[in-house]
Design brief:
By secondary structure, the protein is α/β, with parallel strands linked by helices. It has an 8-stranded mixed beta sheet, sandwiched between helices. The relative contact order is 0.15.
Length: 306
Amino acid sequence: MPSPESMQIRSYLLSRKTAPRSPLSLAEQRVAFESFIENAVGHPLPLLEGTRIESVDVSGVPAAWISPPEADAERVMLYLHGGNYMLGSLTSHRDLVTRLAAAAGMRSLFIEYRRAPEHVFPAALDNALTAYRWLLANGTRPEHLVLAGDSAGGGLILALLQVVREKDVPMPAGVALLSPWTDLVGTVESWTTRDATDPTFTGKAVNALASFYAGTEDLHHPLISPIYADLRGFPPLRIDVGQDEVFLDDSLQVADHARAAQVPVELTVWEGMWHVFQNFSSVLPEGQQSLEQIGMFLRRQTRSSE
């Protein structure tokens, strides 16, 4: 049964979804997104005690090292944030990445890839590949490297894995996806069947965003919509998704395709939860539980070679 905290947050999200609002410019949307979680929980999100954050230039890509206390210095999580490829930054997702890194007991390299519509496909993917190669070139062993991302960042990770395989670069040890956006074409049934239960998005609204990232490319391109990708040779996947979100089938179908390709998959559908509910982990028990489980999965993948 959903927690009382989840009911309060759901009520807040629904009020935002249904309230009439004046259209915001893209710049205004980006500013609002920076403080969205803090506004929802009603207080600032302090950095977890003992966590160190260090800015770093990753071959021209802005990034930050997030190091929880007692993190294993050899093991690294590369994190790609969500925000429909247009929003999100090192600020908006800092709390989520910090909590996941702490749960996994490892450092995280958190990058700020180029966003649409100023930078269309494949700009974000190129930045992600740059960061991946940078980690390997700077001594991170592939068996100690994992990838994680939410929403658009989750789809971007699945695109990155395709390029890594194509270029014969070593694969990471494991991957965690939080409500990944994998179908930018908009054919999955949950965009309709979950439209009323999703407290954050409508299928129509999500569908309107896809072309901003794709530019002139076909939305069916597997590097844009990895629901159409060949997943053979991918590392083990962990997928967490909310039962009530329009993106539900984006996760379910990718999990099915991965199993068909003989890729190990752990899929958890969280009852009563919405898109990237882990963003509210500072106050949401289900978010905390999800991050703990994902963290344990990532620990197992990076220790399997020992």
